[in-house]
Specification:
alpha/beta, Arc Repressor Mutant, subunit A, D-Maltodextrin-Binding Protein, domain 2, three-stranded antiparallel beta sheet, 12 strands, transcription regulation
Length: 299
């Protein structure tokens, strides 16, 4: 029995499919299957019941999952102590929201490559719910999204927050300085979709003021939202650094009578059963580089 065989067994059991598990381990599906078969031969029993379309754990496989997890965690701790000063290698797949991708993700990747030049970086950009699902299914090693996660098997570590400012163009709101929050009912609110991390923040704000918009215009891109607000198709909030630049240019104006939204927390998240040293290194680099005021290529 080898650690590679145990890894193949554990991640095949805990990922959405053998293909996802193989991708996580940076091996082919046939290599993954071979390692599992070798482990089954070593213990003299099947761990998966296989058919033409799928593979499911046998009762013995179910029983051995916690033990495999413990063995792999101990191996990870051993390697962490033995290689604290050694650069990481292999693949690193992570997910971020659009705001992170357009501000400080380039600097994060630069720091990762400088610190760990043998690490192959594969970023994925999307809305929070999609990224979290891919993390749960084993398709990502970690995620940097608005949080914390409510899933019990996801670990969330706070790394910072960002602030937002209410704005509108004079085409949509002729007198932005005096528009009260109650007038939101007469306007279109341009916002990210329900799967975005800003939803809870906005819901709390509207509940506290007992207001709601006349209609919503949902869009899954911050850059597009900025353009829609500038065009006068509705009002909304933007990351403070972006809003300040657009206000200074005269593209939009501050809705000064609107109370401020609470800052949105950002976390780095990973699966609780993933104890690789990689994750602690990535957390430290994220803490060092996070900066939502970094220039955006869209402004």
């Amino acid at each position: 029995m080898t650690l590679k065989q145990l890894e193949a067994f554990y991640w095949a059991a805990n990922c959405k499919s053998f293909a996802v598990a193989a991708n996580r381990l940076n091996i082919s599906v046939s290599s993954l299957s071979k390692r599992i078969a070798e482990l089954e031969t070593s213990i003299g029993s099947e761990l998966f019941s296989r058919n033409a379309r799928s593979a499911t754990l046998t009762p013995l496989g179910e029983q051995l999952i916690p033990h495999a997890k413990d063995l792999l965690r101990n191996a990870d701790q051993f390697m962490k102590r033995a290689s604290n000063s050694r650069a990481l290698s292999g693949r690193c797949r992570f997910g971020v929201g659009e705001l992170t991708s357009l501000t400080w993700m380039p600097r994060l990747i630069e720091e990762i490559q400088r610190t760990h030049p043998k690490l192959s970086i594969e970023p994925f950009v999307g809305v929070g719910e999609l990224i979290e699902c891919r993390l749960v299914e084993g398709e990502l090693d970690f995620a940097i999204i608005a949080g914390p996660s409510t899933r019990p098997f996801i670990t969330s570590s706070l790394i910072g927050n960002t602030e937002f400012i209410w704005v509108a163009s004079k085409k949509a709101v002729p007198n932005p300085a005096t528009l009260p929050p109650q007038a939101l009912a007469d306007h279109t609110l341009i916002i990210l979709p329900q799967s975005a991390g800003t939803v809870r923040m906005l819901d709390d704000w509207m509940a506290e003021l007992n207001v709601s918009p006349g209609r919503n215009l949902n869009c899954n891109s911050w850059g597009a939202i900025a353009g829609l607000i500038r065009q006068g198709l509705g009002l909304g909030f933007l990351p403070s650094a972006w809003a300040q630049i657009m206000i200074e240019r005269g593209d939009v104006h501050l809705l000064s009578a609107f109370p401020a939204l609470r800052p949105l927390q950002y976390t780095i998240q990973w699966r609780r059963d993933d104890t690789r040293p990689l994750l602690q290194h990535m957390r430290e680099l994220a803490l060092r580089t996070i900066d939502f005021h970094a220039p955006s290529c869209l402004l």
